[in-house]
Amino acid sequence: MQYFSGNKIRLGILGAGQLGKMLGQAASDWHLHTLAMDASEDSPAKGYVTEFLKGNLTDYRDVLNFGRKCDVLTIEIENVNVEALYQLQKEGVSIHPSPQSIEKIRDKGIQKEFFLNHKLPSSPFRLYDNKEALETALQTQKEKFPMVVKLRTGGYDGKGVFIMQERTQLSDLPNVPIVVEDLVAIEKEIAVIAAKNTRGEIVCYDPVEMVFDPQANLVDYLLSPARISSTAIQEAKVLAEKTIATFDINGLLAVEMFLTKEGNLLINEVAPRPHNSGHHSIDACVTSQFQQHLRGVLNLPLGDTQIICPSLMMNILGADNFTGPVRYHGIDHILGLKGTNVYLYGKSNTKPKRKMGHITILDHKIENLQATMQYIKEHFSVVA
Ligand code: ADP
After folding, report:
1. β-pairing verdict for 33-38 and 10-14
2. pLDDT value at position 212?
């Protein structure tokens, strides 16, 4: 097979952040030839891929020139120049996820319409061109509080999502196209990572449970497997498989879902790439999400998703009030902890709540997982 011969396939990654870094590391297990592009020479993946090229991910020329050096192209971020990807597709570059599917996903409005048109369960929604249109809908009582307002593009990690209880909160909203969703009564938030290859094989990981920090509106920690019924686990996996098949995505699709108070599953959003909710798989599953993504995009047999050990994954976030060159305070206290692996992404500067790394803890008892996490929170911090 040509990936493993002297005449190696050149696999390009658009984006050289932590996801690109971990993809590059997984690719090195098979000694693949990888290239990554990003705007800064100081990107985490530089040094962990075969070739790093400096370029702007949203610039047509930069993406085109980079893609022309590659046989297969993938992404670690959806905000890339899609017009260049269409051109590269015409020129014969194999692109996964395809530009067609990136376009369906990166705009939350189009994503919601796709769910609706393909009978993939998701919360009821309405689209508005701008803030005035929403204000009119409120005046005419077509909308009412509470509601969830999301910017159609550009949001990430909860930025760009506004849970609104009253009119005064509208002042925080920028005047851009938005999706308004019904506020779901959520019992648990879960994520299922599915994988597909071009020959149509599909596998998925067991659901993980995302426990949110209510202040940061960012995942605080993540438990694998999720503490939900075996029926809900099965239903979530079937839904994730249906979702990746419907989008027809090769590689990974992370499917974030709400388990509602009534016991129904609704898709919140999807991401066609490795995802924060799959980091535990490096240590806690037979095949890591990064190696699985490579298998999917290179059309290789998919790997075993089985859980080796229950786990907890916590993000290492920059502490509040610290901005500047990073220092990992107290790392000596945590590197020796039982069942614990620490991953640092190599970002030179910290800022409040910036994702600087993650920690995976393995243990068969949930109380032990949470106790170790608590110890880490008390003894370790990211400061400047
Ligand atoms: P992002 O893409 O920035 O991660 P999400 O769409 O995942 O944004 O929303 C962030 C969080 O906001 C979700 O994890 C959930 O806690 C909450 N949320 C989003 N949509 C709804 C909804 N329709 N009802 C209730 N809560 C929601």
Report:
1. parallel
2. 83
Residue whose token pair is 């699985």: 292
Kindly state the tokens that stand for 151: 């910017």
Cα dihedral value 273, 274, 275, 279, nearest 10: 170
Amino acid of residue 118: H
pLDDT at 158 over 80: no
pTM value > 0.70: yes
- The amino acid that residue 1 corresponds to is M
d(CA 274, CA 75): 9
Residue 261 tokens, joined:
């108070």
In ligand 1, which atom is closest to the CA atom of 212? 16
| Residue among 116, 126, 153, 163 to mutate when testing ligand 1 (max atoms within 8 A of CB) | 163
* Per-residue tokens: 108: 């939350």
In terms of C-beta density within 10 A (0-12 exposed, 13-18 middle, 19 or more buried), how is residue 111 classed? buried
**Arithmetic mean of pLDDT, 131-150:** 95
Starting at the edge strand that comes first in sequence, how are the strands of the sheet with 33-38 ordered? 51-54, 33-38, 10-14, 72-75, 94-95
Q: Mean pLDDT over residues 3-10, rounded?
A: 83
Residue 21 phi/psi, 5° resolution? -60, -50
What pLDDT digit, counting tens, does each position of 168-206 carry?
Answer: 998 889 999 999 999 999 999 999 999 999 999 999 999
Q: Which of 22, 70, 69 is nearest to 49 (CA)?
A: 22
Tell whether the model's pLDDT for residue 208 goes beyond 80.
yes
Atom of ligand 1 nearest to the CA of 210: 14
3-state secondary structure of 314: strand
In 208-231, which positions are buried (b, 16+ CB within 10 angstroms) versus exposed (e)?
bbbbeeeeeebbbbbbbbbebeee
- As for ligand 1, residues whose beta carbon falls within 6 Å of it are 123, 148, 150, 155-158, 160-161, 181, 183-184, 186, 189, 212, 217, 256, 268-269
Does the pLDDT of residue 38 top 70, yes or no?
yes
Q: Which residues of 289-317 are buried (b: 16+ CB within 10 A; e: fewer)?
A: bbbbbbbbbbbbebbebebeebbbbbbbb
Dist CA 231 CA 70 (whole Å): 43
Q: What is the DSSP string of 101-135?
A: HHHHHHSHHHHHHHHHHTT--B--EEEESSHHHHH
